[in-house]
């Protein structure tokens, strides 16, 4: 609702605040925000940043749906049913990444500091592309179906328990591994072949 006052002739007169509100409305419409989001922003119930993030997440969801539909359409007829079953059984996008995070939370037997766990996730859990190709959607779904396989999880947990008997200081191991990776990364990016040196010794 725009505030106004009546002039002498009964005409509505809008002040500077109303002009600013109209500019905001035009900008929100230009961004393509939904009507509920626009209403929330104008009413002050929803910060503009949150409205934009929610709309972007919705667009990413639609992008995953488009990619999965194309992946089914483009599949070889003999593989189409299996691909459909795979893509229909797992979520896409950010919801899929939550499945990877839950998998590693169950698998890591040693309590890790939050900062180290976040660093591990940043390296070890692939972030879904916001606008995936059909091939990426299939690969991501296949990877997620693996981590949802409880038999694989049982085998990895058994191996972790066996490793713990040999390496009880898992945090120290992960810390050292991270340090070694930090030392070797610039060498790899420069195209250097593996060689003796401080990173290997670490």
From TrEMBL:
Entry-linked Gene3D superfamilies: 1.10.1660.10
Family annotation (Pfam families): MerR_1
Transmembrane segments: none
Ranges where the HTH merR-type domain occurs: 1-44
Annotated SUPFAM superfamilies: Putative DNA-binding domain (SSF46955)
InterPro entries for this protein: DNA-bd_dom_put_sf (IPR009061), MerR-type_HTH_dom (IPR000551)
Source organism, top-level taxon: Bacteria
Name this polypeptide is given: HTH merR-type domain-containing protein
Lineage, uppermost ranks: Bacteria, Bacillati, Actinomycetota, Actinomycetes, Kitasatosporales
């Amino acid at each position: 609702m725009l505030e106004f006052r009546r002039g002498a002739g009964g005409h509505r007169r809008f002040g500077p605040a109303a002009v600013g509100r109209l500019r905001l409305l035009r900008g929100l419409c230009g961004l393509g925000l939904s009507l509920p989001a626009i209403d929330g922003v104008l009413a002050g119930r929803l910060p503009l940043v949150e409205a934009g993030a929610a709309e972007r997440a919705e667009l990413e969801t639609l992008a995953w749906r488009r990619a999965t539909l194309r992946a089914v359409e483009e599949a070889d007829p003999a593989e189409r049913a299996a691909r459909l079953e795979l893509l229909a059984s797992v979520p896409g996008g950010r919801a899929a990444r939550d499945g990877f995070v839950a998998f590693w939370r169950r698998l890591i037997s040693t309590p890790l500091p939050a900062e180290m766990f976040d660093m591990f996730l940043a390296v070890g859990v692939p972030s879904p592309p916001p606008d995936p190709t059909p091939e990426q959607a299939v690969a991501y779904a296949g990877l997620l179906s693996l981590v949802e396989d409880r038999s694989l999880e049982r085998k990895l947990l058994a191996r972790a328990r066996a490793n713990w008997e040999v390496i009880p200081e898992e945090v120290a191991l992960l810390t050292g591994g991270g340090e070694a990776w930090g030392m070797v990364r610039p060498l790899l990016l420069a195209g250097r072949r593996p060689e003796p040196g401080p990173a290997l010794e670490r």
